[in-house]
Amino acid sequence: MSNTFLGMPTLPVFGHGNLNATEPFPKAARRELANTQLRANLGHATHTIRDKRLKVVAELPDWEELRNAGSAIKNATMANLPALLEQFEANFTARGGIIHWARDAQEANEIVTDLIRATGETEVVKVKSMATQEIGLNEYLEEQGIAAFETDLAELIVQLDHDKPSHILVPAIHKNRSQIREIFLREMADVDPALTDDPARLAEAARKHLRKKFLSAKVAVSGANFGLADTGTLTVVESEGNGRMCLTLPETLITVMGIEKLLPSWTDLEVFMQLLPRSSTGERMNPYTSLWTGVTPGDGPQNVHLVMLDNGRTAALADEMGRTALNCIRCSACMNVCPVYERTGGHAYGSTYPGPIGAILSPLMTGIKSEENNSLPYASSLCGACYDACPVKINIPEILVHLRGEDVDSKRSKTKAPTQMDLMMKGAQWAFSSGSHLNLLEKGLPLGKLVAGRNKVIKKLPGLAAGWTQSRDIPAPPSQSFRQWWATEHQAPAGVEHPEGDQA
Amino acid sequence: MSARDDVMSRIKSALRDSPIAPEIPRNYSRTSTMNDEQRLEQLVDRLIDYKANVFVVAAGQAPVKLAELLAGSSSIVVPHGLPDSWLSGLPSIGGNDAGTVAVQVDSPERRLTVEELDAVDAVVTAAAVAVAETGTIMLDGSPSQGRRIISLVPDRHICLLQARDIVGLLPEAIARLDATAPQTWISGPSATSDIELERVEGVHGPRTLDVLILT
After folding, report:
1. Which of helix, strand or coil describes residue B198?
2. pLDDT tens-place string over residues A341-359
């Protein structure tokens, strides 16, 4: 294909759908933090999974080598993406699968709807999928008169409760067992009223609730964890068997997969199927993994479709500093270790993708100026725990800082007059550029002490700096600076020596 | 322009800086240093850890052990390529005593329906390969393992595994399998970690997994 012939498209073309923070992160976080039950649930869950992950990661002496390989494989995938997509397409198609391409969320939703309509069905069963969550497929199908039934336990909980997912692996991480029991008792028509909050009993209730649906379903919609270019194989990684049910029993299978989900070869799966389960659920291996290549005559769905989704992925790819965010394999290790996510939970981020990876992926896919997504790169203390935990070594803190820069740049171009921040930075530049400037400023310290008054604290700073004193006080400044103290101290009377050299 | 051409064109524009694809460092472990005995021991340990029931018997004892496991079951399904000899210990197929086990064979000529599969007590299959390090059993749809549906719908899966098909590490299993075969990798019975991130067994897949390792 010739780019010159077709004309160069203007990049980036951003994505749409459930990728936006609809209110600034600090505001959303403040609301979520007030929910003490949520904080208790999240604290318990994230700490449980951290411990499990550390234990199984420690079992592998070659963990770092696997991470290096995983990172390199994904970088190579992105560098060769056009050729790998063509190779994947040829292999998948040769075995009877049908590939559709979607520029954005709307187009993907329309394609899936048309495919379901063509079967004459009005119900579909669904395997948990981030891509379909991102494009808002369930809501779209509902508008079109098609009922989509989530079958993953956590997705089922969220769907029954008319709630939103808050974690990419465990969408109901914000609910504890007794809350789940209440939801089941309230929303499941056929539930045993004597249901307890024992997780095994709750899982059993879900089995009974969905069993008939599985056995009679004609159409399933899934996502995919990996697509293997050299064989045209798709992979779904799961635990409960709901994935196997959806991928095996129906006549028609429609999979929605982001274009970045490819791996160059079947052999590469040996790296990723070691990295993913240990990083996500803290297991040596997840209970079930399914692999299929187009259609297998007589075995599984005979109408196999795949929707290849852009929806802002090419925009992320065009950002040379940010493109490694596309290497993400959706394990959720970064959110499980994040001190911010652990306290605010996933809803505060607004986007389908929460936590550290969401804070970079969402603005990269939508553009930094979309709704309130420019607040997301600041939803981090830059402690780097996410980078350490990431199985494909995405340098999340570095990309967060890069996106903060993008945000500042995007605002700078809008306003001609210097902002408060500009003036403060100018002032700091002057103060720190020379010792005499700083000395001059430090002479003003007693003034701060005066402001602090008898309580010896400053409760409110003026202007932009007020943000700092919003939730804490500043102690009164000392009457002299370190530099002033040092100058006085070193004019000590002759004969008094420092004790360091003494032989005690 | 078609959506495909549009997306391809966007990708090529996005990569206008021509990033170099790095060499892949494959210095992670790709072959196990364990001997046969250690591999068996590790697999058993991992399977039990994930709540599978494990039995290690001499190959000749397979029919007896299988009959013992199926005591109390009235019907099973098997893929058409399962070795007949394994079933030879079952209480008189076609016999008239109360312990009779009805064996339904799923084959390309006679594919069982979902309802038929839902009605049986258990499925008995072979396995293609197993990974000791992760406790994973892999089915690839060959005649001794059957279609994916037969090892999914029944509530109990009894899987017979030849000890020679146990490898140490995942890369060794990948090297043995054909990617394009419909595969199911199984590590313990169906489970979920969705409630407070604690693993509990028994959701939609078979709730009982018995692994019979033949030495």
Report:
1. coil
2. 999 999 999 999 999 999 9
